[in-house]
Design a protein that fits this description.
The chain has 436 residues and is mainly beta. The chain folds into 2 domains: 164 residues, Nuclear Transport Factor 2, Chain: A; 225 residues, Sandwich (Jelly Rolls), CATH 2.60.120. The protein has 4 helices and 23 strands. Strand 9 and strand 10 form a beta hairpin. It is globular.
Length: 436
């Protein structure tokens, strides 16, 4: 994402490897150029089921690699035969997923995936179908590094996928995929697929889009294809908290939105998150849920009921070492969820975000959530609890493919810990006419 001192005025810029887009933000974990209606993807794990696919985070705003013929830039001493075998598995897996989707036969994906990853793919394809996707096609793949350590391999692939929707429209996008493979009984199988550039934050224009909303729009210092809100960097962050009212989502706006607080994820591939999500299916049903995510694992719904209008508070706190307590309170019903997890964090940033979830190889369209109000935002930085204003948190505007603001944060309130994020009337992506 970005790695800059919030005390400066310079725009936040992404740091490799994430930039060139999945993710980990949870990361995570969370596919195929779904672009506009990829919400089906998000359902793939955890949040929209987010458990299997949505990785927190995320769209590709930074330039993607141009379509090119398959190349290899292997940087280790892995044998040619092994590299070829690994790439062959990935290519076969991609084509198998497209065939499985076309034939409604999930078993075609089983031979190239571990059991857990296979289940994620199954859910992803089902969600794609329910979201209006009629076909998916891999149009190009270009290779990055392939690194093998014993029975575990890491491979980078820049994949271009085309999705066709039931209204006859098409959507094509290129994403960076970081695959993890495991050798089982002498054969390589994919165990995870992460898109790290999904969380890319790029410099904004410095001018605020014209948006009618409560509060003065914040200057577009940073832009993202799927994040809107505030983020703070600099120092060591050991706790973050925020409260919000779960937005009432318009049932005609197919897609999703996720509200969360998190630590890490801007300058690295780690991201610990907790929040709520709304998902609008093609039949107009709106489902609300609470979830957590620890990239590169996929996100998971948690047993806490939330509904539109409920007041929610989420807190992440590091107790000692890699031990964290995640707490989500429904302040309206007085119910709560709390769990202690083990997670290795960079402690490098804190976030308060309204997100268009990503899933697998595409972004989920951002639904029409109206205006989200975040209050009591704070984080512990270098042992001291501070408001967003005291932390020097920077605003992030969510934009579509045409550069239009689709979710605009306001300036911070007088208390330094309150702001709003408003959904504009701009389409979720630039390439889909007649859809949000």
């Amino acid at each position: 994402m970005y790695d800059s001192d919030p005390a400066t005025t310079a725009p936040l810029t992404p740091t490799p490897p994430p930039p060139p887009k999945k993710t980990g933000g949870q990361g995570a974990m969370r596919l195929l150029a779904i672009g506009v209606l990829a919400f089906a993807f998000a359902v793939f794990t955890g949040r929209l089921d987010l458990a299997g696919v949505v990785s927190s985070a995320r769209g590709l705003v930074a330039p993607t690699p141009a379509a090119r013929t398959t190349t290899t830039t292997t940087t280790n001493t892995t044998g040619t035969a092994t590299v070829t075998a690994i790439k062959d598995v990935i290519e076969r897996a991609n084509h198998a997923q497209a065939r499985a989707f076309a034939k409604s036969d999930d078993t075609l994906m089983r031979d190239t995936a571990t059991d857990s990853y296979y289940q994620e793919l199954v859910q992803t394809n089902r969600d794609l179908a329910s979201g209006g996707v009629t076909s998916i096609t891999l149009t190009n793949i270009a290779w990055g590094d392939v690194i093998v350590s014993g029975t575990i391999a890491q491979a980078t692939a820049f994949e271009t996928w085309r999705s066709t929707y039931n209204d006859g429209s098409n959507d094509e996008r290129t994403d960076r995929n970081e695959y993890t493979l495991t050798q089982l009984s002498g054969a390589w199988r994919i165990s995870a697929d992460v898109q790290p550039d999904s969380r890319v934050i790029e410099p904004g224009t410095g001018t605020s889009p014209s948006v009618t909303q409560p509060g003065t729009p914040a200057a577009a210092l940073s832009r993202s294809s799927n994040w809107s809100g505030y983020a703070a960097t600099g120092g060591v962050f050991t706790s973050v908290t925020g409260s919000w009212i779960v937005p009432t989502v318009t049932s005609t706006s197919i897609g999703a939105d996720a509200t969360w607080v998190g630590i890490g994820g801007l300058s690295g591939r780690d991201l610990l998150q907790a929040g709520t999500q709304a998902m609008v299916s093609a039949d107009g049903m709106v489902e609300y849920s609470a979830w957590t995510e620890m990239l590169p694992q996929t996100s998971h719904t948690v047993p806490l009921a939330v509904r539109a209008g409920d007041a929610v508070t989420a807190t992440l706190t590091q107790k000692s070492g890699n031990s964290w307590i995640i707490t989500i309170n429904n302040d309206t019903t007085k119910a709560n969820y709390s769990v202690t997890v083990q997670y290795s964090s960079s402690n490098s940033s804190a976030e308060w975000i309204q997100e268009a979830p990503s899933a697998g190889r595409g972004l989920v369209p951002l639904d029409q959530f109206g205006t989200l109000r975040v209050t009591a935002g704070s984080a512990v930085q270098n042992g001291k609890s501070q408001t967003l204003a005291e932390l020097g948190a920077r605003a992030i505007t969510m934009i579509n493919g045409a550069g239009q603001a689709i979710a605009q944060p306001s300036v911070l309130g007088h208390d330094g810990s309150t702001f709003t994020v408003t959904r504009t009337d701009a389409p979720s992506t630039s390439g889909r006419r007649g859809r949000p």
